[in-house]
Design brief:
This protein is mainly alpha-helical. It contains 10 helices and 4 strands, in the order ααααααβαβαββαα. α4 packs antiparallel against α5 and α5 packs across α6.
Length: 232
């Protein structure tokens, strides 16, 4: 486990599968306010809410090898509830994947909770909370930048560059898209985080550590977080 585990598929295979998926999705997307641009597969930033056909949901879940019965039969009240349900499904799939070494499976599951090899690697990249300046390891949480559930490979889930060490309240905000970071390390806060709540969390008065850019290897993960997790 001193080395990253091999990716589960090559970039070329991922691109080919993604192109095929977009092609299958295109005729099923709504003509107005589609969340995805049918031609390119890029997200449509102008679509705040969109109603999609059940066929779209089934197609995406099938492409991700996720059982619809688990995700759609479970009552979820918030986005965080759904994310946890999705994490549970992904974890079960990992546990059942006999193509992965048992040690790798264990480390991938531990990485979901910010533990094990993933935590050790994140500490090598990010030993200090970028919000509070805390540097005491047992007061910090190893948080994935690109969410654990969204990682496409075992290597991404265990990559230290795909993580930040954050104080618990900062980890909570970051995970829910209420906190993000620019490439230079500057924190950005969602419009959904009110000034009143931010004040109560100490976000406006905390003495932040000096700005420092995130590692080059973290930049692609950071872009994913800003585009897919952070709420402007």
């Amino acid at each position: 486990m001193n080395q990253n585990p091999p990716d589960l598929q090559s970039p070329a295979d991922s691109l080919s599968q993604g192109t095929a998926l977009i092609g299958n999705l295109a005729p099923l997307l709504p003509t107005k306010h589609s969340p995805i641009q049918p031609g390119s597969g890029n997200g449509n930033q102008k679509a705040y809410l969109a109603e999609v056909d059940r066929q779209v949901v089934d197609l995406i879940l099938a492409a991700a090898s996720l059982p619809a019965v688990d995700l759609l039969a479970t009552t979820t009240n918030t986005a965080a509830d759904f994310a946890m349900t999705l994490d549970d499904v992904v974890e079960r799939n990992i546990q059942r994947d006999m193509s992965l070494d048992e040690t790798v499976r264990e480390q991938l599951v531990r990485a979901r909770r910010g533990q094990g090899l993933f935590r050790k690697r994140v500490l090598d990249f990010e030993p200090v909370c970028r919000i509070t300046g805390l540097a005491t390891p047992n007061l910090l949480i190893a948080s994935h930048i690109k969410p654990w559930r969204a990682c496409g490979t075992a290597a991404e889930r265990l990559d230290g560059a795909n993580g930040l060490m954050l104080a618990p309240h900062a980890d909570f905000l970051f995970d829910r898209g209420l906190l993000g970071f620019e490439s230079d390390g500057k924190p950005i806060f969602s419009s959904q985080l009110t000034d009143t709540d931010a004040d109560k969390l100490g976000m406006h008065v905390v003495q932040r550590p000096p700005l420092r850019p995130l590692h080059n290897d973290s930049q692609s993960y950071l872009i994913h977080h800003r585009m897919n997790v952070f709420i402007p």
